[in-house]
Specification:
This protein is of the alpha/beta class. It is built from 18 helices and 12 strands. It binds alpha-D-glucopyranose (GLC).
Length: 438
């Protein structure tokens, strides 16, 4: 049968036109909305020590919730500061660093800034805001007058001691290295403790940090960052090395300290095996936690010095900068601003027991209620012994670490080691033609 080709009626045309209109409208709307719906958030990458990631994760999540267009990809790194520094250094040397936010130890800033790896943040933060931080932490973020790092935590070496054992024995807290040695020998003899004093003697950055405290405690100095004068072979420095060697020779410190970093010494102290420990504030929360053998039995003091000297605690600490190669500096700054705000830090400190970089938080009511030792900690961080802020710091520290290790393990005498360390440091700094101050 043949189909009859009848012309379309206007009433049949209308639904088709309407359908076409609807399809076009949907297409236009999709074109407009889809990009917004499928827009990927900017991803910032940040490398941190594993223990820092655990502490910071909740606050990073909080930032992401408030800023859904930004994601922070946290990459877990090793514990040792040197190992993290190596990871950053090789990434920067290769060119396109995968990291946007750089978590910097206070001693890396001159090197990273001099190499042009991190951005100048000077104009991003008003001086008034900056003045709320511990001055040493801010200074540690500067290089040649410009600011490259915003401090998110302070750190200072301190003396942990067994309050319970000292109190039972009716012995006051030592104020000098010499008193500590006597107390240790005395209580070790009585069988009150296996070891007297634990310190970090492994060949790594931690040994340099520990040594500046003993060095300044004996009235010595490492290197002057202005004049490049080197003090490592001065009698005070040799005495400082001899003091540490003697703690091993006399059985106050275990021979193993020559291979111990922060964690090994913390674990030994936490097991209840020693009277005194030199370490950073992160130990407090762990050593006083449930399950620790020394919970409720310890207290802290500022670092000791030799009789008649003042000494000081080594200023450590971490802060954030932005990689020169980051493609998202504005988003990175937004994250840094949020994570280093006083409010975030207050919550962070209450949660972790780490040391603030804001002065006000050391005496904040809520913080002190939880950590009664914080006002004292403020005095510690305000009286620091500094590792010299040199652009060549990594090499200078490497020289010191090698010779300290030789001295501690008996391969060299204190004098031989320090003479060699001083001479290599002079060669290093001499090749950088810094004018001598007159
Ligand atoms: C801590 C300090 C840091 C130091 C390191 C040494 O992390 O904050 O400044 O370099 O210990 O191990």
């Amino acid at each position: 049968m043949q189909e009859i080709n009848s012309p379309q009626q206007p009433s049949q045309k209308r639904p088709r036109l309407l359908a076409l209109f609807a399809v076009t409208l949907v297409a236009i709307l999709l074109l407009l909305i889809l990009p917004a719906l499928t827009k990927q958030p900017v991803v910032l990458t940040m490398l941190m020590q594993a223990q820092d990631i655990t502490n910071w994760k909740p606050f990073v999540k909080e930032f992401e919730q408030k800023n859904p267009d930004i994601r922070i990809n946290l990459i877990e790194g090793p514990f040792d500061t040197n190992l993290i520094e190596n990871l950053y250094t090789s990434a920067f040397l290769l060119g396109e660093s995968p990291y946007d936010i750089i978590n910097m130890d206070i001693v890396w800033v001159p090197k990273f800034a001099a190499a042009g790896w991190v951005r100048d943040l000077t104009d991003r933060i008003p001086p008034k805001q900056l003045s709320k931080f511990i001055p040493g932490n801010v200074e540690g973020g500067r290089y040649r007058g410009k600011l490259y790092r915003i401090p998110h935590a302070s750190d200072a070496g301190m003396l942990y001691y067994r309050k319970d054992i000292l109190e039972q024995a009716g012995i006051p807290v030592p104020k000098t290295f010499e008193e500590m040695v006597k107390i240790s020998q005395n209580l070790q003899k009585q069988g009150k403790a296996t070891w007297g004093y634990l310190w970090q003697g492994k060949q790594y950055e931690g040994v340099s940090a520990m040594f500046v405290e003993v060095l300044s405690g004996f009235g010595g100095f490492w290197a002057n960052p202005q004049t490049f004068e080197v003090g490592l072979d001065k009698p005070e420095a040799i005495k400082a090395v001899e003091f540490l060697k003697n703690t091993i020779a006399s059985g106050i410190s275990p021979p193993g300290v020559t291979t111990y970093g922060e964690e090994e010494t913390r674990l030994l102290f936490q097991n209840g095996k020693a009277l005194f420990l030199r370490n950073w504030p992160y130990v407090w929360k762990l050593a006083t936690a449930e399950g620790s053998n020394v919970r409720g039995k310890i207290a802290i003091e500022p670092m000791l010095s030799s009789t008649g000297q003042t000494g000081g605690s080594c200023l450590g600490g971490w802060g954030w900068g932005i990689a020169k190669t980051s493609k998202h500096p504005e988003q990175a700054w937004k994250a840094i601003k949020y994570l280093t705000s006083e409010e975030t830090q207050r919550k962070f400190i209450l949660e972790t027991g780490l040391v603030p970089s804001y002065k006000s938080l050391f005496t904040n009511k809520e913080v002190v209620a939880k950590y009664p030792h914080y006002p004292q900690l403020l005095k510690v961080v305000e009286r620091p012994a500094l590792r010299p802020p040199l652009a060549q710091y990594a090499q200078a520290s490497d020289i010191l670490q090698r010779y300290l290790s030789s001295a501690f393990t008996g391969r060299m005498s204190a004098e031989e080691a320090m003479k060699a360390a001083a001479s290599e440091t002079r060669n290093l700094l001499g090749s950088f033609k810094q004018p001598k101050a007159s």
